[in-house]
TrEMBL record, chains A, B:
The keyword Oxidoreductase does not apply. Pfam families: TetR_C_43, TetR_N. InterPro entries: Homeodomain-like_sf (IPR009057), HTH-type_TetR-like_transc_reg (IPR050109), HTH_TetR (IPR001647), Tet_transcr_reg_TetR-rel_C_sf (IPR036271), TetR_SbtR-like_C (IPR049445). Residues 28-47 bind DNA. It comes from Streptomyces gibsoniae. Gene3D superfamilies: Tetracycline Repressor, domain 2. Coiled coil: none annotated. SUPFAM superfamilies: Homeodomain-like, Tetracyclin repressor-like, C-terminal domain. The keyword Transcription regulation applies. This is Helix-turn-helix domain-containing protein. Keywords: DNA-binding, Transcription, Transcription regulation.
Amino acid sequence: MRADARKNHDHLLAVAGAVITEQGVDASLRDIARRADVGLATLLRHFPTREALLDALLRTSFDELTTKAAELETSSSPEDALVSWLRDFVACARDYRGVVTSMMTAIEDTQSALHASCVTMRASGTRLLARAQAEGTARSDIDGTDLFALAGSLAWLGDQPSLAPRADHLFDVVTSAILTSAGNSNAEAERRPRARG
Amino acid sequence: MRADARKNHDHLLAVAGAVITEQGVDASLRDIARRADVGLATLLRHFPTREALLDALLRTSFDELTTKAAELETSSSPEDALVSWLRDFVACARDYRGVVTSMMTAIEDTQSALHASCVTMRASGTRLLARAQAEGTARSDIDGTDLFALAGSLAWLGDQPSLAPRADHLFDVVTSAILTSAGNSNAEAERRPRARG
DNA sequence: ACCTGAACACCGTTCAAGT
DNA sequence: ACCTGAACACCGTTCAAGT
């Protein structure tokens, strides 16, 4: 890549990250190009679709998440590893409002520029789920696609501004449906009612 | 309302219902007006915002849901009533792709034309939740807003075409996190692993 | 190689003019 | 009262022309 092209590429990515953090994944591409002091056609030349741009923006987070999932497979208990991965996934999706819906669409669309990344993510989660299931700490009647769906629904909850104050609590509730360990059972929650703000 | 206006109103509602069922809540208003053989300005005169149109479209379902919730309060066991209401809510939201996100936005926006309907819905759910909590069949550390959020996340899952085949299963998983009864406990799910397609 | 302005077919909003 | 065409400021896509 030519030096000027490289510079445009990196600058566009930085500006797009800022704009999409502000406005969500449906932000105007024209606006991004404008803020980057570049023609709209130049943005489209570097990132031919909105999803290609999203994939580039998420690349770093995705790669980190994949690496971390591999580490968790050996460094943590199966249960902690699974919950930790879920937490990371949700945190990563929260960076860009609406991105989890794009991901759920992309994972079923082989043509999407986001497809491969999503498949990799789901595979990481699937491995951690299987390990927890083998240990008996995750319910056995869900598979990797179910887990990815539940992770997605958690990210969707995290996307709703009105639910921000209770995002952690809702995370615990849904996670308790995935786990089977006593510490997260509903009976336990029943015994120790938690004060709400 | 004048006769011709009434006719336009009803016709627009019917056409809008069809188009939004096909294309989701972000369907082009211009397209709806075009298909109704009416000027775009006429559509906007009857329904000044997209949310006003959505509210009108959902009015019937909303009212039925509210009525049914009141009936469930006396006719069913607290647990069955709560699950039944959740199921109806999800079914109603599935009519229009993306509507649950509009609802979650609207319930925090007093100005939204959808606001009042959403508040009523949440109140219905809250009453059913409280009854189940009093009986001990719903976990005590969630409130009506949490329930509405979880119902929303279930509707979001139902919105994803790729998850359609497992929508019922995911409903059961999330519902098991809300309920505390033995028949839905994770331990029980663990004992009777369920075959997946 | 890479960039860009302009043309294109869309969108929702607004309003003066028509019946 | 109610309807509408047209003007407006947007949007993403495409491509011939420039450097």
